[in-house]
Design brief:
359 residues; elongated
């Protein structure tokens, strides 16, 4: 398989030969702005124009309104010999995307067949991954399934890749859940995925789009690590997602892990976000229990509220508690906060100002 290295495309090199090595027609196109250019003016140079910033934009615009005959001419110049070259090109990839959007179904099928055997490599390439995502949106279901099958042995590598994760997310969003044969590969890796900057996004898409039968093993695995995930810079987003969109049983399990941990977790940079989300999404009884815990003195008799007020993260959790509490608890919270504000003023604390304004 030949992968195009756009660094060798002479029309975009910055040495003194770059201008001379452009074809005369592309050179004129770049300099002659007064001429009204049409697609027929650049036939025979479609590939070169596609790899040029200005030429690519011109072709993209023209494809949207091109006749069937014009699209066919563009297609024939690109496919099959130049497909992989342009798919991976910084400017050419946009032309291929337009063909997936506006080409005939035959064009889309042939293009998809051209990239399918190389889908694992293309999915992790900066420009080609955009083409693969666009293809997934516009090709027939059978070809979507072929891409899933081709990617299956490499799915975990793709999930952890800055480009590939977007391809996996697009497949989860667009392909019928029962046809996503790579999902079992995530079992046993839920903690690893949850704490990964790209894996956490893919996992959230799974919970969003897959069936209960497919997500239950992943969710059950997730529950084993909830406390650790709350405190992780990426895992906390997965836990927040469960609190906001999960089934009642799963949300209740997460909140049960917070019980007895509210002060500790609210003082943590990442877990404090989970505490806020829990206060927002909990049922009435659970919310009251979490807030009551915040109003209960620590074992040494010190005020939990005073500790939270002085903490850079916990003070936001306290503000959230004031905003979501029922009238009875809100009144009690404020009555406990007020005496602390006097001593807080000694610190000239920005946190106390937040609390004053939240009452």
């Amino acid at each position: 398989m030949h992968f195009y290295n756009h660094g060798t495309q002479f029309s975009r090199r910055r040495d003194g030969d770059a201008i001379a090595l452009r074809s005369p027609i592309l050179e004129e196109f770049r300099t002659n702005r007064s001429r009204k250019w049409e697609l027929c003016d650049i036939y025979g140079h479609i590939v070169e124009f596609s790899g040029d910033q200005h030429g690519s934009r011109f072709i993209q615009q023209k494809i949207e309104t091109a006749s069937s005959e014009e699209k066919q001419i563009i297609f024939d110049e690109i496919v099959p010999d130049n497909t992989l070259q342009l798919v991976q090109d910084v400017f050419g990839n946009y032309v291929i995307q337009k063909l997936f959007e506006h080409g005939t179904q035959v064009h889309k099928t042939i293009l998809a067949n051209a990239i399918e055997p190389h889908i694992a490599q293309l999915s992790v390439q900066m420009y080609a991954c955009r083409v693969v995502q666009k293809a997934i949106e516009y090709i027939l279901p059978e070809q979507q399934i072929a891409i899933v099958k081709e990617l299956e042995p490499h799915v975990l590598k793709c999930v952890k890749d800055a480009n590939g994760n977007h391809v996996v997310q697009k497949l989860i969003e667009r392909v019928p859940a029962e046809r996503l044969s790579f999902i079992p590969a995530f079992k046993g890796s839920v903690f690893e995925l949850s704490t990964h900057p790209y894996g956490c996004r893919v996992l959230q898409r799974c919970f969003e789009h897959l069936s209960e039968e497919q997500t239950r093993p992943l969710m059950d695995e997730l529950h084993k690590y909830i406390i650790n995930l709350m405190q992780d810079q990426f895992g906390n987003y997965v836990v927040q997602y469960v609190l906001e969109y999960g089934k009642q049983h799963d949300r209740a399990l997460v909140i049960s892990k917070l019980r007895g941990q509210m002060l500790h977790m609210s003082r943590h940079k990442f877990a404090s976000n989970v505490c806020e989300k829990a206060l927002l999404t909990a049922d009435t009884e659970s919310r009251r229990a979490l807030i009551q815990e915040m109003m209960t003195s620590k074992q040494d008799g010190a005020s939990t509220i005073a500790t939270m007020m002085k903490d850079q993260y916990a003070n936001y959790v306290l503000q959230r508690a004031v905003s979501v509490a029922d009238q009875e608890q809100k009144h009690e919270l404020i009555s406990r906060i007020k005496p602390q504000l006097v001593s807080m003023r000694r610190y000239s604390s920005a946190y106390s100002k937040h609390l004053l304004s939240s009452k």
